[in-house]
């Protein structure tokens, strides 16, 4: 079992971070310091208040974390400068009615969700190196978050949803594709004689029909067709050739007219893709939140083990002193029972603390999912809990305002309302009668040879047919019911949005209250711990001169232990409450420097 050297860990951390950053960038999850609109203002506020992760280690770890962040920032800038031209964002359907798809842009859009070819090997080489050395892996909070985003199995599954939803866009646009058809047929007809002594007749025929048509966004359909028919009756002096050329146009004047109706399915498919992106963003926030909470739980359990170990040492020292006093006759044997009871309690607490640490580490390993043969046995080394928090929550109204724009649930609800608005356009159009204008143009040529049939088309003869076609169901009950259903769904979505906004405000305000409570508890528990230390010191001094008992000393030890546990618990609770607050207002990913799709608020 060889432990990794400091330099090896440092280099390994950088290789992990650099490779991860590249993969996350290609999958739509990358680090950045620039976000538009309100996200940019929020990012400036976050920068002014500084990040939690910069203050989470000891002085040496802080220096290393700072250099790590600088390297990450430099690497990201170089990647962005070379890939900015290929970065494509899914456009809002209201910004463009065009259905033409550029192949390069389509590929770039797909890259937003496509896992990089490097993905399976992101940690492969480093993990193999670490496994070969069988040493512990030092993991900072920022590295834990990146590992979770890259390796979490549930997140990998959910990344497929936007890609699958995006295929519906192609299906919706496909109805505007050019449609071509060709039909070739061979035939022979035979007729028996109808009179006595007569002879039957037979004829061979060949027919070729081809057509090309397209539906346009306005609802107009244009079709052109070409036909060539050849027949050769038995006994005839010459063959019969017929060549035909036709052009038809069908344009709706009422129902089905306009881009708003004909592009409805395309726009709804795009909205479905955007909804799935916000769903993915919400789950990503959940993964980051769970990872941070599990990380802090591990640090808390680690500190509790240390506190219980120190308390156990004090109890053992107290037992030795008591036994010595009993041996020399300074105190009675009855004093020994209280000391032994306290010692047993300390051992019990230490056992529970170690078990809690193993359970907390188990949850963290599940979230990180290290890509090794047996991730459940990977030893993770975590830094110490910072002595004091450096980040404070802003005022509650600022968090509420951020939540009403950034929460994925809000953006999903707004996009659903946009879908309902499009559906209303379609159903209202369905109430109109079907009135279509049509025109058919055709020319035909007849001859006894193929070439002559073409020349015959140069004549003055032609076919023209034009008119209007009207259709309307009596009472039109199906269309009325569909429109009423769409109207009610739109009203339901609007009411649901207002209810969601109210619920989110309650969540944010409750999280803000809890954050302030947890912060106040830090100073309160620290004061309690200092008082308990003084109380224990005084009780110990009195015991040495025979003015106290083993029971009172043990009670003072127990109170000191409780105050120490409460103090570190308050510190961790504050950090976890900040995570809960940032998740409640939808800013967690931005505050952690993670730029994922869906960062732009949906405009109402």
Automatic annotation (TrEMBL):
It holds the Pfam family OEP. SUPFAM superfamilies: Outer membrane efflux proteins (OEP). It is found in: Cell outer membrane. Residues 1-39 form the signal peptide. GO terms for cellular component: cell outer membrane; efflux pump complex. Coiled coil: none annotated. Residues 94-108 have a biased composition (Basic and acidic residues). One of its GO terms (molecular function) is porin activity. The keyword Transmembrane applies. The keyword Membrane applies. Residues 87-108, 187-206 are annotated as: Disordered. Its main location: membrane. Belongs to the outer membrane factor (OMF) (TC 1.B.17) family. PANTHER family: OUTER MEMBRANE PROTEIN TOLC, TO APRF-PUTATIVE OUTER MEMBRANE EFFLUX PROTEIN OR SECRETED ALKALINE PHOSPHATASE-RELATED. This is TolC family protein. It comes from Candidatus Wallbacteria bacterium HGW-Wallbacteria-1.
């Amino acid at each position: 079992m060889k432990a990794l050297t400091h330099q090896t860990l440092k280099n390994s951390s950088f290789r992990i971070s650099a490779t991860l950053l590249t993969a996350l960038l290609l999958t739509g999850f990358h680090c950045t310091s620039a976000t538009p609109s309100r996200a940019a203002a929020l990012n400036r506020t976050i920068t002014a208040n500084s990040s939690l992760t910069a203050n989470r280690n000891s002085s040496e770890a802080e220096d290393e974390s700072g250099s790590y962040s600088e390297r990450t920032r430099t690497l990201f800038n170089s990647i962005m400068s070379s890939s900015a031209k290929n970065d494509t964002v899914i456009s809002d359907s209201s910004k463009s009615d065009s259905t033409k798809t550029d192949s390069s842009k389509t590929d770039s859009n797909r890259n937003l969700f496509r896992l990089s070819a490097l993905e399976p090997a992101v940690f492969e080489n480093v993990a193999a190196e670490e496994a070969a050395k069988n040493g512990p892996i030092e993991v900072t909070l920022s590295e834990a978050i990146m590992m979770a985003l890259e390796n979490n199995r549930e997140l990998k599954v959910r990344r497929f949803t936007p890609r699958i939803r995006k295929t519906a866009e192609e299906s919706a646009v496909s109805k505007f594709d050019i449609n071509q058809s060709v039909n070739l047929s061979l035939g022979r007809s035979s007729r028996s004689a109808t009179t006595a002594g007569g002879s039957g007749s037979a004829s061979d025929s060949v027919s070729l029909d081809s057509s090309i048509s397209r539906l346009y966004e306005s609802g107009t359909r244009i079709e052109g067709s070409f036909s060539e028919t050849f027949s050769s009756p038995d006994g005839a002096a010459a063959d019969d050739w017929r060549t035909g050329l036709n052009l038809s146009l069908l344009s709706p004047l009422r129902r089905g007219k306009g881009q708003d109706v004909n592009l409805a399915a395309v726009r709804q498919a795009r909205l479905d893709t955007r909804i799935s992106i916000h769903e993915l963003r919400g789950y990503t926030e959940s993964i980051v939140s769970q990872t941070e909470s599990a990380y802090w739980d591990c640090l808390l359990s680690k500190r509790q083990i240390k506190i219980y170990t120190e308390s156990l040492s004090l109890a053992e020292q107290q037992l030795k002193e008591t036994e010595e006093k009993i041996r020399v006759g300074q105190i009675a044997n009855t004093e020994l029972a209280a000391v032994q009871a306290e010692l047993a309690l300390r051992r019990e607490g230490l056992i529970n603390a170690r078990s809690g640490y193993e359970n907390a580490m188990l949850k963290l390993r599940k979230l990180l999912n290290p890509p090794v043969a047996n991730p459940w046995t990977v030893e993770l080394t975590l830094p110490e809990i910072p002595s004091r928090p450096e980040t404070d929550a802003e005022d509650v109204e600022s968090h509420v305002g951020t939540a009403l724009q950034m929460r994925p649930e809000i953006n999903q609800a707004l996009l659903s309302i946009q879908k309902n608005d499009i559906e209303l356009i379609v159903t209202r159009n369905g109430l109109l009668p079907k009135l279509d204008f049509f025109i058919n143009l055709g020319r035909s040529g007849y001859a006894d040879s193929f070439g002559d049939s073409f020349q015959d088309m140069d004549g003055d003869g032609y076919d023209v047919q034009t008119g209007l076609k009207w259709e309307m169901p009596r009472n039109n009950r199906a269309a009325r019911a569909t429109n009423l259903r769409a109207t009610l769904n739109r009203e339901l979505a609007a009411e649901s949005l207002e209810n969601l906004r109210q619920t989110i405000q309650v969540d944010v305000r409750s999280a803000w209250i809890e954050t302030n409570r947890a912060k106040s508890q830090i100073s309160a528990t620290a004061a309690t711990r200092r008082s308990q230390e003084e109380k224990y010191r005084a009780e110990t001094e009195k015991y040495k001169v025979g003015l106290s008992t083993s029971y009172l000393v043990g009670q003072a030890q127990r109170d000191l232990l409780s105050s120490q546990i409460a103090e570190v618990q308050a510190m961790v609770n504050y950090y976890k409450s900040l995570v809960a607050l940032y998740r409640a207002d939808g800013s967690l990913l931005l505050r952690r420097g993670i730029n994922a799709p869906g960062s732009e608020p949906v405009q109402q």
